[in-house]
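Wed. Picked up where I left off yesterday with Lead, cadmium, zinc and mercury transporting ATPase. The coffee machine is broken again, so keeping this brief.
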Amino acid sequence: MEIGHAGRYTQENRLLRRALALLESVGPSDSIDWIRTRARILITVAFAEAESGTLAQGLAQLDALRPEVEAVTDEAIRAELLGAIDGNHAGLLLRSGRYEESIPLLDSSISHNERNLELGTDDLPRLINALAASLSNRGLAYLEIGRIEPAFINLNRAITIGQDNDLPMRVAYVHHLLGDLYQRAGDIPEALRYYQLAERDYLELAPFMLPRLRIDQAQALISAGLADEVAKHLDDVLPQMQVERVQQDLAEAELMRATAALMEDNLSLGRKLANSARRRFKRRGSDAWAAVAALIGLRVDVAQAWRGKRIPASLPARASQLADELTSVRLMDEAAIARTLAARLEVRRGNIAEAKSLLGALSRPGPLTPIEQRMLLRLTRAELAAAEGNRRQAFAQARAGLGDLGRARDRMGGLELVSATAIHGQELGDLAVRLVLDGGDSTAEARRMFGWLEQTRAQMYRYEPVSGIDDPQLVELIAEIRNLGYALRQAKLDGRPTTRLRSRYAERQRAAMRLGWHAASRWGKPRPVADFADVLTQLGSGALVSFAVSGGAMLAVVLTEGRVQLVRLGSAAQATENAMRLQADLNAMAPDHLPEPLFNAISTSARKHAAALDAQLMRPLAALTGDLVIVPTRALYAVPWGALDSLRSRPVVVAPSATAWLAASRSPVHSGHTALVRGPGLSAAIGEIDKLAAHYEKATLLAGPDATSFRVLESLDGASLVHIAAHGEHEAENALFSRLELVDGALFAHELARLERPPRQVVLAACELALHRIRPGDEALGFAGALLAGGVGTVVAAASRVGDLPAAAAMDDYHRALAAGSSPAVALAEAVAVDPLRRPFVCLGS
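Structure written out below (tokens, as returned):
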């Protein structure tokens, strides 16, 4: 059995055959123990043959055994063994996707086990475990056919039996299945919580179950849009699964990895893995799973064809044929996806009648229909309406789809899940923007564009944050990561080996990230999307510029002086290249003591790219007056706007969306304390926070041994202003582990959710923590982003690296103006204007 749990089924089968030969060498026997032992060996042989060979081989073994067991005269033994045969037969069908066929067998297994309990047994623990197993599997079968209530009843009965009879492995498995149940119900944080419980026990009791768990966790993360996490998640376990050769689990893992590759637009990898998974399923005789793999392969080919000028006629025909195949194995959701893809392809080919016929044959989505399937259907209906010239209906479908997505997002937990969900609505949002642009540049279309941009970008900032999320397990895990980071830093300084520390640090980060996905049942209450009239009122004499990209074009929606207009701004690729080159130049010129010829060459390049951005993005808007709110997109998040000549000395605030800016502008202003923090390892210039204290009558100074993560987090709570001079680093691959380095280790963005009363303003003086990881839908996530999403009104930080001397000088100028009564945007504009390229600070939020 241990060899089988390790996935070495061929070796297990050989040992079982030897055991059977030894047993039969002393039989046949009428002994109850002999009959039981032989039957159990053959049942295990059946499972091993199904896993190492084909499903048909395994089922044949069980079918051959059944008449022998039915001939047993002892009713209790007969019930016990028939229950085991039926339960294992059902288990093989479950693993092959034949869920409905398994339910009558599980009914029979449960009935046999219950009858055996009535009659009495000399092996009560085994019988109770078998009953719990069949109840668990019946719950799984009901779950897979979409019957949530009976699934929940069976799983709860199984977990009660497990807890009452000290069956920890059975409890762990039911936790696993409850994760599957909540995933199907669309409650991803709760699903991940149950998976975490199962993982905790599997690690101790049953490591062989971890690959199966990883696959189901991956499916939940796909639903949440976290394709990158799925890729890392499965890339860690696929090599080991290939060694162990558990064909079903390996094929399912390849299928999930193919889905992640498709979401990340890695079509070649997606096709390779989908084809590999399909071959494995076919070899096992898992026809239903093979059809699911074919669907992923179809989606890859559709994505590839979509980039071309024409859709081959064979592709929609293949999609329709696959839909029929999926229907024949009763995979109705998957069949609906294939038929919807066929309809979408026909729309693209101009076959409107055929597309309408295909869509007309689809049933209405049910309450358990996955969000990605809902969004595909809405997208296809919107494209069909647009092809028919019915813009109103196209917009209605897009609006309904984004509403579906919003309701799914509202159920998410931590910021990672909330921000990642946007990927499911990206194509629908892009379609709406294209339809608006097709309507021209009138005021009405500009207002419509503003509305769509607000509905499709930076939605994680729409939520009123939940204060004081303080999960004890997460707090403990973050503390461990902080200590590991400190130990790692000391080991580097001492020249000691760091490999084991790095490995442990990365593993604990992953664990904290997973725990953070469900530490809060939801991030916060959603706010309504900002109305343009409310934004205009709040702007007063100022202006708001919301940038966007459609196709290859950059555009801006401008709100000012009571009006809204749409301005087209040329090539998006050109703006992106200049933004990235400007950031690279600013990073290169940051060190304080560069040789003068090198500094002059880099600054000349930086001025050139800043001038190009200015000419493309701001000169066409030269008529705008007053304070300016900028909503960036994509690479424009990295632009230090004060470096553009048109904006020199002008107050500019950068916000993720107009909705976020409006909420921050209206948040209550509290008269809290002022705190000034100095982290370790700073130069004398940047570390002079006592000089800044001269600008304030009362300020708390935290430096040296006082600048701990706990004290700094404490100082953030309820403050009016917190200035932090500390080294920091933006983690592009794991944004919520962007960090400030303090005397006892790092303060992570993850920890900001613990604040009961977010500070009004935070200044990050010595690091590049204005940087964000930009996910689809312009979901900007990083240290500054976590502060803003957590309710901080204003964050001042650098958009690129900055030298110690210019940073110190800029902060002195900034605080002098702030203490004199200037607003943050005005104070920063004056401070940056002295040396815009060397002081790349931006004012974020309000």
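Quick read: The chain has a mean pLDDT of 89.
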